[in-house]
Amino acid sequence: MRYTGSKLKLSRKLGADIGLITPGSKSFERMMNKLNIKPGQHGRKRKRYTEYGLQLLEKQKLRFMFLLNEKQLSAYFDKAVRMEGNTAKLLSQILEKRLDNVVYRLGFAPTRTSARQLVSHKHITVNGKVVNIASYQVKVGDVIGFSNDKIQNVAYIKECLENEDLMVPSWLKREGNKGTVVSEPDESYIEQTVDLRMVVDYYSR
């Protein structure tokens, strides 16, 4: 089951900005001011975590960051384990190449939640064809765009497209209202928030 509660409380509970709240909004400012205060009327002191507790916390950060349920994240991990190479890096590549995440990384939407809505409502294309599956895995060379001009004039999307300060990951290239996957993603963006090694340790118990 996906989380449907308060995004502010969840971010405070995890102690991290996991991309659920629109940057620049009042809610985002409130979250950043309270990020180190646990939910509750007066806040609670952060408890000391055991090694398992730290691993669980990092796993939860990753799960909520990409809007996944436990079964989905576990399946992604199993897929990464079966592949040849570094499991943490492979897991990050699988997650980063989800279509809803790519739409978010390209700055077509302010949060992954809104990016997922764009995909599910058939507003996003891959190589000119509408794809409405959020978990769709993009490939190097794929071109992501909008299905029609009308959706680009929606206020929050137009604001995103006009944002010149957006930092697009090096594995993506954005030109106007289109984006291209130019290489395989790395784990650097995820690692800014989540310790992937601990996630691997959690599932490897």
Classified by CATH, the class of the largest domain is: Mainly Alpha
Total helical elements? 11
- Spans where pLDDT lies below 50 across 5 or more residues: none
Strand fraction equals: 5-15%
Mean pLDDT rating = 88
Distance between the termini: 23 Å
- Looking at the structure, the CATH topology of the largest domain is Ribosomal Protein S4 Delta 41, Chain A, domain 1
What is the helix/strand order? HHHHHHHEEEHHEEHH
Considering the protein shown, what is the CATH homologous superfamily of the largest domain? Ribosomal protein S4/S9, N-terminal domain
User: What kind of sheet is the major sheet?
Assistant: 5 strands, antiparallel
Strand order of the largest sheet: 2-1-3-5-4
Query: Could you tell me the number of beta strands?
Result: 5
- CATH architectural group of the largest domain: Orthogonal Bundle
Q: Cα-atom Rg, whole angstroms? A: 17 Å
* Helix content range: 40-55%
In total, how many domains does the architecture comprise?
A: 2
Question: Helices and strands: which structural class?
Answer: alpha+beta
Characterize the overall form: globular
